Every structure is written in C-alpha cells, then in structure tokens.
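Rather than argue in generalities, we reproduce a single protein record, letters for residues, whole numbers for local backbone shapes, just as it appears below:
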Amino acid sequence: MLKIYYLPCLVALFLSTSPAQSSLDSIMFQYERKFWNGSTCVFVQGSNSSSYPEKLNSMYHSWSSESRINVKNENELDTSDLKKHLNFWGPVYSYSSLIKFLPAAITIIPNGFKLGEHEFTDSLDAISLISSDGTRRFQLANSMEGLLSLWTTFQDISQYFVMQKYAITYHGFLKNNQFDSSLCYDVVSLHNATLKKHNTKYYTFFYDPSIFNASRNIDSMFAREDDKLEHAISVLKFNRPDRKIECYLYKNLEQKYQMSATPGYGNPFIEAYQNHSVGFGPTEHESIHILQGKASTIFSEGLVGYYYSTEDSLEWKKNNSILSRHPSFSMGDFLGKVNRFDFSELSYAASAHLAKFLIDTYGLDKYKAISRYEDIHKGFEEVYKLSFDDIILGWSTFFQSRKIPLGSERKITFDVTANSNPDSCSVYISGDIEQLGFWNGHGIKLEKAQNGHWQCTIPFAEGTVFSYKITRGSWDKEALDSNGNVPGNSMFEVKNDDTIRATINMWKDQIK
C-alpha cells in the first residue's frame, strides 16, 4: 500500500463527553454559526485603541470595506446597533465601556480579566468567547501580542477558550452567559491526569497508553518520528529546533476535542511548539508547520504539500489530478481572496502546486521569505522582483505543462475481506474525493457478499488519483494494519478498470 501523510481536518462524530451537548451536529461550529448568521455584524472599535499599535486599527480599517460589516467606536453605538451582532476585538484596555457588553462570566480586573473565579493577568493571556445567544463575540487579551495568538484557532469545539502563552489552557460552555465550573475543561489538569510522557531527541510526547497495541515496541515508534523529522529538516533546510516540540497524542477525536479544544486530526500551536493529534498520523505534518514558523496558511500548507510531493511521485500526481478536475480554478482568485484557504482538497492541492512551482523555479529560501508576507502582491515584488500577474502567468504555464488529462470513465471495484467483522456491522470506504465522501468516516457503504467479502464498484475518470481508508462507519472503528496499529492512508491511481483488494483482521474498537 502506498501512503499519503496527512488526513485533512475532518468533521467527525463527537461526543458524549461534552457535558453540554450530545452530538457533533449540535456542537461543532454552532457558536461561530450563530454569530456569523447575523445579517449585519458591527465590529466595535475601542475608544482607547489609538494608544495601541497601528496593527489594531489597520484591522478595523480593512474590515470596514466588507459590505456586511459596520465598524463603529464603542461610544457611537445606538439602540439599533444593539440589536445586531457585535464583535469586540482588541486588548482589554483598548475599550472604555466594555463592561456594559460583557457576559456575566467575564470580569475586567485591574491587571487583566477573570473567567468565573479564574484570574488571567499575564500579558499573553487572551480569551475568545461567544455569548450564549450568539449575538456577541469577544476576542480580548491583555496585550496586542496575546490578542494575535487567538488567530491560531476558532470557536470550533467550545463556546469559549483561553489562550496562555500561545496555547489553549481552558475551554468550555456557559449557562446563559454565567460561568459554570462543571462545564469548564482545565486542559493542563486533564493532560496531567490522563497522559504519559516520553522524551526523544526532538519531541516530548504526551500520550494515552491505550492508543498502542501492547505487542509493539513503543520506544522504536517514538524514535521513528525523530527519524522522519530529521529527514524533513534535511530536505526543507530547516534549522534544528532549539527546544523540544510538545506532541500530545490522543486515542480518538472525542478525547482530542476534550483535551485540546481543536478540531480534526492534527493541529499545531506554532509559537507554543505544541502539536495535538489523534495518534502519530499528523505528527510530522504539524511539526513542519512549527519549524517553518509564522506563515500564511496557503504558504504553510503549501510547503508541507511540496515536501510530500517530492517524497512520493503519486502524491504529486494526485495534486495535479485534483487541479485537473477543476477546470474553472483560478490561482489568481485563490491568492486574492481574504479567506482563500478553506481546508478543502482543492485548497491543499493548489497550495502544494504553487509551492512546487515557486520552489522549483526560484528556490526554497525565497519561498520561505514570501510565506511571511501578509501582502502577497508586495511579497512577490520584493522577493521575486515580479508582479502578482507575472507569478500567476508563470504558475499557469507550469501547470499546463504538467496537467493530467482525465480520460474515460473507469470502474474501480473495492473488494474487502473482513475476517473479524461483527455480524451487525457494515464496511465502508472513505476517501479524499467526492465519490468517497471527502473523508466522512461512513463514506461509501460496501455490499455484503460471500465468505466475509464486502464489495462496491465506483466510476472514476481515468487519471484520477485518490486516497482512501476502510472503516465500519466511523473513525473509531477504523481498519488496522497487521500489527494492530492505525495505518497510513492508501493511495490509488486510476488507469483501467481495476479491483482494489484488502484484507482486514482487526478494527480500532477491538483493541484491548
């Protein structure tokens, strides 16, 4: 089986562990959705914001150009504004009238803020919270630097989270805007109570022991992650890290949500040198982000995509295949939009393809330099001495010469032999392509045949490259390899009518 190295951020089943909710549909993104579903948003600029760096005021200036966003000074709000959705973004003391709007759970104190009875007085402490009715959003901090740390994550899991020294330390839910200690997760305490510690050359791993099969040599598995990172450092010409990366390994998404308040399978807090992932799968990917440092998402994900494209020719074909399936894709539009990276397969492929063009053409050092620019047009002019249009034209020529022509429809049959499948359970194929459900754990159901076989035939265009995994309907019931461990993704290139065969002897939920 060929492997791909990263499973994209997924929406997957949550969660009986949240004391406030019972399913992902009722929790995932609900507070973000509540807030942004308002027909008009008012971004409330603090009366004291002029005493803070220009960065703060330039953000308000850029937001004022959005058609559905109004920007008003806090002292200019009128009764009609109070019926709209209000967004408060800034250091705590950039506001003079903030107390009028805060939910009861937050209190401003002389040297910071309180959440319930918890005090946060360090300059890097910050909080992101959406009111229970979804009409007020607060992103506040004790300093501008602390405020910017909130940009690394969103209200994906909980109603609020607190960042301390660039990482989440508390998250949870309010009861009608009141703090409730029974709905608050203390991330550090949860880690200390549940996870074991293991040091290697580059990492300090904190892991749930139940994720490993007892028969495996755990030391060698940890050491392998060092070897993988060493290779990435060599290929991408990174300096070796001057401190260890803290890597938190969780047994499933449910535990990861509870102990990190981050979505999907892998997330880095770059300045905190922290990774949070389900198992080892995303460790290397997220560590590359950390070693790259601050960079826009397109250039950060692009470098990772470039790395894996150089390591695996089929991965490079896959990126070409994805772009070839989207004839209306415009790299100029992709780079020009405010929220251009949407974590879709197309965004990952486009970022990787752009990175390969820029690095192969102009070198790795210049790519690292351009990745730090917020203004891409300015970056292209200063780093490459070319205009934005020149870069887009160059990439287009690069892509057209490598474009994969998609041919006739081919029939691919999946034939899975499930030797330990419970009689009541079905078998599913899930993958990174529309026909396989875009990594939904219960992507495509196979039909039960004879002698433990499960089968399904799906049409794909010739030239398509896709990744896939086998489950029994969710990622908690994923197929394991012959050693009882979670395998990497399998990858397949469609050339002719063909059959993909796999034999499964164990599932994740059957590990004792």
